[in-house]
Amino acid sequence: GQQLNQSPQSMFIQEGEDVSMNCTSSSIFNTWLWYKQEPGEGPVLLIALYKAGELTSNGRLTAQFGITRKDSFLNISASIPSDVGIYFCAGPLIQGAQKLVFGQGTRLTINP
Amino acid sequence: SQTIHQWPATLVQPVGSPLSLECTVEGTSNPNLYWYRQAAGRGLQLLFYSVGIGQISSEVPQNLSASRPQDRQFILSSKKLLLSDSGFYLCAWSDEREGGNEQFFGPGTRLTVL
């Protein structure tokens, strides 16, 4: 079945550093979603991507829809303590389908 | 604007006791509704989803069941809890009419079975 592989699984960085993480699949996706989950809370949608090659920003966050449609990238610039959390990528199993498949997440820890 | 509520926020139950978790959505009609379980802060496992009242699809065989008695209400239940039912339960909704696949999550219920 379709699976999403996120890397790295964990990141330990200093405040102020830039962050890069990615999500890959052996299958083509027509939508990529990026979520952030803080401890004890539900995931929050950060960015949605719908076109191959699309680059979308949300504040200090930038996400890209890979040209091959098999990957997506999320970058965070000038990290701050509140960026701590787990970042998940997700995509629909079939375009327009009701179900999403999620990556296993990238856990971001920031040292002040 | 749409909001999603879950309760209770936390729950500690003995093995063998029943369970009822509730999820409600406001500000939209005929949403798709989902129940997920998350263990140890990683990985979302889809348990059930519903595209309408009384319509439930189960993703994995388990000790749990779901019901949708009203358009914007989704309930997760068990007759007898197992230790392995412990976890963080998340409800989510999506709106097919918007054309996208975005799902929006509630705050979650932390269930501990002892």
Can you give a write-up of this model?
Chain A has 112 residues and is mainly beta. Chain A has no helices and 11 strands. Chain A has strands at residues 5-7, 10-14, 19-24, 32-37, 44-49, 55-58, 61-65, 71-76, 85-92, 100-102, 106-111. In chain A, strands 2, 4, 5, 9, 10 and 11 form a 6-stranded mixed beta sheet that branches. By secondary structure, chain B is mainly β. Helix content of chain B is 0%, strand content 59%. Chain B is built from no helices and 11 strands. Chain B has strands at 3-7, 10-13, 19-26, 32-39, 42-52, 55-58, 65-70, 73-78, 87-94, 104-105, 109-113. In chain B, the strands form 2 sheets. In chain B, strands 2, 4, 5, 6, 9, 10 and 11 form a 7-stranded mixed beta sheet that branches. A 4-stranded antiparallel beta sheet of chain B has the order 1-3-8-7, with no helix packed on it. In chain B, β5 (42-52) and β6 form a beta hairpin. The mean pLDDT of chain B is 92. The chains are: A mainly beta (112), B mainly beta (114). Chains A and B meet through β4, β5 and β9 of A and β5, β9 and β10 of B.
Record the SSE blueprint.
The complex is a heterodimer of chains A (112) and B (114).
Chain A: E1 5-7, E2 10-14, E3 19-24, E4 32-37, E5 44-49, E6 55-58, E7 61-65, E8 71-76, E9 85-92, E10 100-102, E11 106-111
Parallel strand pairs in A: 2-11
Antiparallel strand pairs in A: 1-3, 3-8, 4-5, 4-9, 6-7, 7-8, 9-10, 9-11
Chain B: E1 3-7, E2 10-13, E3 19-26, E4 32-39, E5 42-52, E6 55-58, E7 65-70, E8 73-78, E9 87-94, E10 104-105, E11 109-113
Parallel strand pairs in B: 2-11
Antiparallel strand pairs in B: 1-3, 3-8, 4-5, 4-9, 5-6, 7-8, 9-10, 9-11
Write a short abstract of this structure.
Chain A is built from no helices and eleven strands. Chain A has strands at 5-7, 10-14, 19-24, 32-37, 44-49, 55-58, 61-65, 71-76, 85-92, 100-102, 106-111.
